[in-house]
Specification:
Length: 461
């Protein structure tokens, strides 16, 4: 395959004093040589691969020295894109980096599209689709745990697992082919069906295992949208502030994408909480009052977690009871606040109003009970099993949807086998399952999907 040479600012993870402009493609080294000058005068093209060089960038038109830089030279194929890659490390802010990029573009590189480096790695066979998607997740990861999920996926763990399932299916398909080619043995069908049932059952169980991790994986990836509700003055703002203070708030600005949003997250024991409508809570204290019961019910329904705050020093009111109603059936934690004051609330009644809902008591004034609350939040969604590092999480909505489809087709195959349907008919469902699983790793996907997926990436990756 031939690709032109692309370039982009590739700001490394975390803030650093160094910015990197990355070049990839057949002409990467030649373009760099036009502007990069080492003190000793040697050209990059004559240097060995995977080496770092000090020198200056000089604008060939004006002869002006633009920047003092370090240049990393990585020749194909042992690079991220499997093409020649040159990385220009320059210090200084955005102005300096932009000047370097402009110079490189002027000398013949093309500005990379979002995700184009990763796309090339994919197209050149360096990584598969699920790994490419993991690169994007990594960029957006909000907590260490979310990052670990992305890292194991990028490492190819999900791909290997899917590969194993497809291999098992392929083996049964091969068996069927053999049988069709040698029909003179009439007991072959009896041999093939049990094998097929065995393999398909195994594949189905593995898919189920993966799907069981999906809700947690999704939470890690996208955050747990959390709404704090309660009557005026019960301590909602205090709760919000204490969550934000104890857990460094993460403000993510997803740059370079069409969805340039700024959202506020807090990291609670590795679980990113997306505080929904926090501004609203701050301003008017009460979303029910502000947007009305019906609309707030809708906001509540979209939330993954409700923190319903009650005042321990007051009796339950009609308003409180209405809130209980509004959140029934949802993942809710009851926070009974102000335990430092004499208790007036009827705890028996609170328990009656909730079934199976975790109740935590706090005194936000005295900074008590917040640990228990955090534990309750983490426990509600992860029950401690997040520590089991050997689990492979599926977090990506596209993967989850495909796994559900694969589960349906494999079930069809198993159902047909049970009913004594001929093996070459069952084979159709097995083949379909194999194809669907292939879409996860990009084996059987269309170009349009590939383009769409990669266009969601950040520039420079
Ligand atoms: P909101 O209206 O629900 O947002 O409640 P706020 O967080 O603004 O708190 C209302 C009042 O209750 C403030 O004066 C807080 O200082 C006070 N408050 C909050 N938590 C506690 C607590 O645990 N104990 C006591 N005694 N007062 C609290
Ligand atoms: Zn308040």
């Amino acid at each position: 395959m031939h690709f032109d040479t692309i370039a982009a600012i590739s700001t490394p993870m975390g803030e650093g004093a160094i910015s990197i402009v990355r070049l990839s493609g057949d002409e990467a080294v030649q373009i760099a040589d036009k502007i990069f000058h080492k003190p000793a005068g040697k050209k990059l093209i004559d240097e060995p691969s995977h080496t770092i060089h000090y020198g200056h960038l000089i604008d060939p038109t004006s002869g002006e020295t633009v920047e003092e830089v370090m240049v990393s030279l990585m020749k194909a194929p042992k690079t991220f894109t499997r093409e020649d890659v040159v990385e220009v490390n320059c210090h200084g802010g955005i102005v300096a980096v932009n000047r370097v990029l402009q110079l490189i573009l002027k000398e013949g590189a093309r500005l990379a599209e979002p995700g184009e480096f990763t796309k090339r790695a994919f197209l050149n066979g360096r990584i598969d689709l699920s790994q490419s998607e993991a690169v994007m997740d990594l960029i957006r990861a909000k907590t260490d745990r979310a990052m670990n999920v992305a890292l194991t996926q990028m490492d190819g763990k999900l791909s290997r697992l899917i590969g194993g399932l497809r291999q098992a299916l392929l083996e049964t398909l091969a068996q069927v082919e053999v049988n069709i080619d040698y029909p003179e043995y009439d007991d072959v069908e009896e041999m093939t069906i049990p094998l097929m049932i065995q393999k398909c059952t195994w594949v189905k169980e593995e898919i189920d295992k993966l799907l069981r991790t999906s809700s947690q994986g999704k939470i890690l990836r996208e955050g747990l949208s959390t709404v704090i509700i309660g009557r005026p003055n019960v301590g909602k703002s205090s709760l919000l502030n204490s969550l934000i203070q104890e857990n460094k708030a993460i403000v993510t600005n997803i740059a370079g994408t069409t969805r340039d949003i700024i959202e506020e997250y807090v990291n609670v024991r590795g679980v990113p909480l997306r505080l929904v409508d926090t501004a609203g809570i701050r301003e008017t204290e009460d979303i029910v009052e502000r947007i009305g019961v019906e609309k707030s019910r809708k906001v509540l329904k979209e939330a993954d977690l409700i923190l319903l705050v009650l005042d321990s020093a007051e009796e339950l009111t009609i308003e409180d009871e209405r809130l209980f109603e509004a959140v029934s059936g949802m993942d809710t934690i009851i926070v009974i606040n102000k335990t430092d004051l004499p208790r007036k609330i009827d705890l028996v009644r609170v328990k009656q109003l909730t079934s199976n809902v975790k109740i935590v008591t706090t005194s936000l004034l005295k900074d008590e009970g917040v640990d228990e609350l955090e534990e309750a939040i983490a426990g509600l969604f992860f029950e401690g099993n997040l520590e089991a590092g050997d689990l492979t999480y599926v977090s990506n909505a596209r993967h989850i949807a495909l796994l559900h489809n694969a589960r349906t087709t494999i079930e069809d195959a198993l159902g047909a086998a049970d009913e004594g349907v001929p093996v070459d008919i069952i084979q159709i469902d097995v083949t379909r399952t194999w194809e669907i699983l292939g879409e996860i790793i990009g084996d059987t996907v269309q170009d349009s999907l590939i383009n769409q997926l990669f266009s969601q990436f950040c520039l420079g990756k």
